[in-house]
Amino acid sequence: MFYRIIDDLIDDKLKTNCFVLISGPIGCGKSSIAIRYANSIVNVDKNLVSNILLAEFNVEKLLAGKKPLLVENYDLLEGLLYEIKSQCNKSNNEGSFILTTRQIVDNGIKMLPLSLYESEESNGMISILELFENPDLEISGFSSNLGIEDLIYACCRGGFPKAFDNENFMKRYIENLINLHEDLKDIKKVKSILKVYSRNISTNISNVEILNQVQRDFPTMSKSTFYRYINALKKLWIVFEIESWDINLRAKSAIKKTSKKEFIDPSISPSILNLNSEMMIYDLETFQRFFENLCIRDLMVYTSFRNSKIYYYEDRYGLSIDCILQLDNEDYALIQFELSRLTFDDAAGKLLKMDALIERKIDDGTVHIQRPKFLAIITSIGFSYVRSDGVKVIPICILR
Predict the structure, then answer these.
(1) In sequence order, which residues have a C-beta less than 8 Å from that of residue 201 and are 6 or more positions away?
(2) For residue 368, what is the DSSP state?
(3) CA 321 from centre of chain
(4) pTM of the predicted model, to two decimals?
(5) What is the CA 148 to chain-centroid distance, rounded?
(6) Burial 276-296 (b: 16+ CB within 10 A, else e)
(7) In what order do the strands lie in the sheet with 332-338?
(8) Please, which of 84, 190, 292, 329 could form a disulfide with 337 given CB 3.0 to 4.6 Å?
(9) pLDDT (tens digit, 9 = 90+) per residue, 11-61?
(10) Nearest to 149 by CA among 344, 379, 380
């Protein structure tokens, strides 16, 4: 049984809310964590037709279990959330319902696949949230437990709990996608889209170019069909996009606006491309992009309490920042993802240049934000330390 960072958040919300909603991709462990708090369970997905009929004729019977009642995949029954809210308005009893859904929703607790800290592969010596609270926090001298081959293995295996016991989990996971959304009708088309995403992971490739590459396999695929597939994959949390940081640092025409493409878990890329950890050790240039996807997943998990947002920045003058990590109070950090120390100087140079640009724009009144809380390079393995220029270097296997 894995410890999950959102455990404490669920516990707190059950004490103050009538229902708690947990959303996340299928297979991330929503049911396993929700069951810990539930006294009874209704899985809408099982016996769906019977549940639809019962909800139509006697919805109170469907929701009559001992509280807290776990209602899995509640969104498959139209109007069920309205009925739950209605019951909550009448009783106002805290901790009555726990709801789960595999689709993205605006409200509720978002659950992702396991981070390296949750799978006990990161020793968690440095908290990213503590760095926001205290940028001068002593971080020097902590060492990662993993070597590069261990990290590659962890990336290729991924963070879905069942992948830890079944090396073929991701293959079956991908094959099953067409059963999860009505718009994913053809697994071959799904795989073609995912392959293009995988080859361009952590880049700001345009959707037009993705479609052009998919049409090499499916020349008759229309734009509308392509976007139906993309939107379905987004709703299922399989793919997501990182938007460009919309801040007035340069002329609008100078800043690239195309979103960066990512997977909810870094294991999807190597799986769809038929790559394994033994092969990846000889192709570290490709692994760099998978590594960035892994870091983004973990940062989202570690800052989930703070409703964090992640952006990137790139302009036509050659300045690019991999990650602007922003918390709910508008505090933010500038972060570069670098696999090897050979690129640390270049990465630090970009961070410092960006920091200076922000400071200059603040001083002349062009932007109305604070300076970043800290600048950091998140790397693969080794020791944590602070460079002489003030940039922090932190292996991903030390973070929590």
Answers:
(1) 261, 262, 263, 269, 289, 290, 292, 293
(2) -
(3) 18
(4) 0.92
(5) 22
(6) ebeebeeeeebbbbbbbbbbb
(7) 309-314, 320-326, 332-338, 375-379, 392-395, 385-386
(8) 292
(9) 889 999 998 999 999 999 999 999 999 999 988 887 777 777 776 677 788
(10) 380
